[in-house]
Fold these 4 entries.
Entry 1:
Amino acid sequence: MNQNRLWAKKSVTMLALGAALLAISGNSSAEQVAGGVPTGSAVTAVKAARMLDVKSGQWIEHAVVLVKDGKITAVGKNIAIPNGAQMIDLGSRSLLPGLIDMHTHLTGDPEFQGYMAVSLSIPRVTLTGAKNARRTLEAGFTTVRDVGAEGYSDIGLRDAINAGDVPGPRMMASGPALGITGGHCDDTMHAPEYKITSTGVADGVDAVMKKTREVIKYGASVIKICATGGVLSFGDDPKASQYSFEELKAIITEAHRLGRRVAAHAHGGDGIKLAVLAGVDSIEHGSYIDDEGIRLMKEHGTWLVPTLYLGDWLVQNAEAIKLPAPLLEKAKVVLPDARKHIAVAIKQGVKLAFGTDAGVYPHGLNAREFAVYVKLGMTPLQAIQSATRNAADLLGWGNQVGTLEAGQFADMIAVDGDPLKDITELERVKWVMKEGVVAKGVQ
Ligand SMILES: [Zn+2]
């Protein structure tokens, strides 16, 4: 919560700065440049042939959105545009809220899996993050939850974006993921004599509680944990649970007490259930979710964040990125299984928020996840809701992002066609605005 207030304060300062710069330069088109100068106190009117109300699923024809100081002030059909407003006319295009990805690793790239990661410094991957932040924003994702980065590279990136130093999506970031010794969130590539342990490793109730406090101390605005084994790690089993119930409970209780939500990486059915019973806010991946897990998630109101498109990309590109053989073998088994089980969870009505695991595959392709959800049984509207209002709810930012309504941040995208008819329209985002600033012009 404090963090949110801090961010709000920062963006107000940014806007004041932007207004001053505009006054000096007199360059009213400056905000058309990616990462450009905020629009300051002037009103901007965005016009488009139609706009999607993601709550009702209805199109609003002849849509106008008025923007001031980075926020939406009014929205509707043919509403009056104040004199002197700067016009952005998107013609026949369709307007939607900025998209939200609940599972990214902005400071990671696919060719850095396994041994290829060994020589990369934290400063180097942070700059990789700056490149990926821009790509993600230009793909229409104006908010992300970044879940798991060594060395707090994601926290540095988040703060640089908030300061206006680099363009990128609004980030909720976890810093290092908490995990057990030798688990998915530990470094298991090195021989014992190297004595390498990942930053987030902690075992036992006291140690995990301290680690939770430590990552919050260094800037985590969400806590990421590894509740089961994973695919892209050596020597562990995705189906096996890792943290004990007592450890999970300690982390989640402490995080909630300090105002942070908790996202649990969990493939195996047992780890999913333990995390849900311990009160976790979201299950990431959920590959082996079973009937009991589905029932518990519905009972506890736990969110599911599947990450499914990556299965296609990883298997197709394993050779090109030199994915180590033991990891590819796991991917070939787990990722197709995940689609079968997630399809059941969708059918049973588990609350679902959109996630990709971008970083395991190239950033900017995030929207390819939508078509997989539709293939597994969601309607296009449900798929869009998973990346807008649902994701905003899971962030706890439902009154700031996820819908186009007065009072929300002016985060919006435009596409040529109708994504309710063809969901892949979202893979071809033509225009992006974040907080009143145009991040991508019409192409
Ligand atoms: Zn991940």
Note: The pocket of zinc ion is lined by residues 103, 105, 147-148, 357 (CB under 6 Å).
Entry 2:
Amino acid sequence: MKSFFVLASLAACALAQRMHIQAPTPGQTVTGNGTLTVELEQDQSLGPLRQTSVLIAMNNCFDVCDQPDQWSPGIILYNGDFNPQFNASAPQKGHYQDFVLQLPGFQPGPAVIQVAHQYAGGGATLTNVFDYATVQVTVQ
Ligand SMILES: *[C@@H]1O[C@H](CO)[C@@H](O)[C@H](O)[C@H]1NC(C)=O
Ligand SMILES: *[C@@H]1O[C@H](CO)[C@@H](O)[C@H](O)[C@H]1NC(C)=O
């Protein structure tokens, strides 16, 4: 029983370190050849955490948006450092980073933005871990 609680609290700790897509919001309309601001927020952890990198990709998903295994490969919009910062002018946002990305010209219709995140976290020793998030938007 005791080990169950230890495992549960470790899992909760790992969950609390996730990255979240704060912008765009689900259903937001974006211009297929315009610029798009993607805002990523990093939960603060009690333990140590070392950022590695983040990859942001986007693809039209049309009638298979709810079937990720049918999605065509995403076009990579950013692949590089992730350095979320606390902004004293916007404390409610926590630790976040904005990426202003030029879109190459997506077709009008539904599209999905996928974000893959690598970092090192954990307790006494850091473990390389990964998390992932998506948000669906509408290209106009
Ligand atoms: C974006 O696409 C629209 C419609 O095709 C076009 O009118 C506009 O000039 C394009 N803008 C850029 C920055 O390419
Ligand atoms: C901090 O937040 C303010 C208000 O939202 C914003 O104007 C400013 O650009 C932000 N600073 C950074 C470094 O993101």
Note: The chain has one helix and nine strands.
Entry 3:
Amino acid sequence: MKALLASLPAIARQHRQFLPTIAGSIRIVQREYAIIPKAAPATADQLPLRTGRPRLVILGTGWAAARLAHDIDPKLYDITVISPRNHMVFTPLLASTTVGTLEPRSVAVHMNDIQPALSSPSNSLYIAEAQAVDPAGRTVTCRSADGVSFSVSYDKLAICTGSQGSTFGIPGVLEHAHFLRDVKQAESIRQRLIENLALAGIPGRALSDWQRLLHVVIVGGGPTGVEVAGELTDFISNELRALYPERARGMRVTLVEARELLGSFDASLREYAARKLIRRGVVLKKGVVHEVTERDVVLKVCEPLRRFLPRVINLVHDV
Ligand SMILES: Cc1cc2nc3c(=O)[nH]c(=O)nc-3n(C[C@H](O)[C@H](O)[C@H](O)COP(=O)(O)OP(=O)(O)OC[C@H]3O[C@@H](n4cnc5c(N)ncnc54)[C@H](O)[C@@H]3O)c2cc1C
């Protein structure tokens, strides 16, 4: 830098018309270097810096947390966000990432992009799980992914930890099924799909294995299950058909629902969705999942919904 500064007057002499500008630049550069001492970077122990403002601690980086972090005035509070993930997920688009229609980065936004003040030394984003809250002492005890425990004091606390996916106590769900609530889970579904499509193409594959590898079972006929089924059928009839026509023909998608498809929606919408799915080849089954094994989904009551119309539920024997 010194060499550059030393050479500037010579450069300026060669380009006299730019002299005032260049001289001005030299002054600014020299002043910055002269009066701003190079501070040693603060260590994690020294952060966040205390400003005297009340500290707002936000637990979570989901919809509620992101909205609060976005809307809060960082001049009024020092902000600490604590969550196992550093980004907010735009969940309505998550289903599209399971088949590659969207890339994961298109549905996730880093918290610092939502609230740029989180980069300031008086604020912080900790990638950790809140484990306990002590309202009397106004502290939250947390644990990082690598097992480091620490506590954070607060003046105000916002608990935005949402809800967790439930296995409903069904054996095998944790071990053998995928949830779809965040980007990592969407990626693992996509990975499994890619793996199974590749494995199905191995020569000498037994027919039963081929059928199993190309069969996707979705449990839950709510909006997420229906969206995933729709995305899968799009993927099969577009990308997969072009890449591996045989495997596209062998693919099956089954949607299992214990009660009504899209139960909270208006009857005409439910009917519309059911018709669309059936037309695209999705097998709709009414059943309660009893167990999930490495190779099977065992249903307690299992009835295919032939010509499924929620108003005229026509249950027939299993196929
Ligand atoms: C695939 C999918 C599609 C959806 N589509 C729609 C839709 O189209 N329209 C709609 O209205 N809703 C939709 N939803 C529902 C919507 O996403 C939820 O209602 C919403 O996410 C709830 O927001 P939240 O902030 O309460 O919780 P979440 O968004 O679940 O956020 C919880 C946050 O808390 C964090 N956390 C969890 N435990 C801890 C802990 N111990 N310490 C610190 N942090 C923790 C999590 O990592 C996460 O960041 C969809 C959900 C899914 C899964």
Note: Residues 59-65, 82-85, 91-92, 94-95, 129-130, 160-162, 180-181, 223-224 surround flavin-adenine dinucleotide (CB under 6 Å).
Entry 4:
Amino acid sequence: MRAVVCEAFGGPEVLALREVPEPPPPGAGEVQVRIRARGAQYVDVLMLAGKYQFRPEPPFIPGSEAVGDVVAIGPDVTRFKIGDRVMSRHRLGAFAELGNASAENCDSIPAGMSLEEAAVFRGAYSTAYHALLQRGRLKEGDRVLIHGAAGGIGIPAIQIAKLFDAEVIAIASTNYLLIKGIEAIGVRIGGLNEAHPEIAAANTKALVDLAAQGKLKPRIWRRFPLSEVAEAVQALIDRKVIGKVVLE
Ligand SMILES: NC(=O)c1ccc[n+]([C@@H]2O[C@H](COP(=O)([O-])OP(=O)(O)OC[C@H]3O[C@@H](n4cnc5c(N)ncnc54)[C@H](OP(=O)(O)O)[C@@H]3O)[C@@H](O)[C@H]2O)c1
């Protein structure tokens, strides 16, 4: 199969489209997905540079969010069948034509959502939702300040905060915070997925329901073919992206 391989730590220049072996058959609890589209995110930029908290050694296939069709199911998987179209979260490997993912990390696509939107929905919206509602304890009528508001997580954060009747102050292209009395709270979506998978699953269900009602909609900045992954990554580094980038 074709896959984008990170061949050394660095910038977009370390990425190469290669012919690589297909993944093994899915293990217990896993599905294999023929990936149709995937998101490229700032997290991928950090991972390529070896600056992310999860630091795989090159060579590796980057990419953690995708949409595609289930082509094989592992033992014990009852949630999906071959042919189902799913949004999938991968630890690595989404910049490829085939990828294995835990069935727990896959969801059906909300009604009315396009393939490209589904490819970038899960990660950004679940991060923004957890950050605002659970870590940030957002209540109706609160005033919320959103940094990086034009970015992949910023736009979902604006949509979710507005949906919960918050007053939103969105900031782009500046990091200067002069308002007194601000409380900073750490958030790590990976930590929620590991420690409280039941909350993560409930969050995803809530988000899928809201999206199916047309209340949440990913903003796609641009679509790139997989062969132009370096351009997509460079656009993230150059802060050109407003919303999300999709690799097809
Ligand atoms: N805690 C978690 O669980 C979690 C999960 C996922 C991602 N993240 C992190 O969240 C951050 C945002 O991710 P993302 O996917 O939204 O990235 P993104 O799509 O690249 O968006 C980042 C936004 O921040 C702005 N920005 C970039 N560099 C800046 C700087 N030096 N000073 C001020 N603003 C800057 C950018 O545009 P402007 O030029 O318009 O300001 C852009 O709108 C990343 O650091 C990512 O690693 C955290």
Note: The radius of gyration is 18 Å.
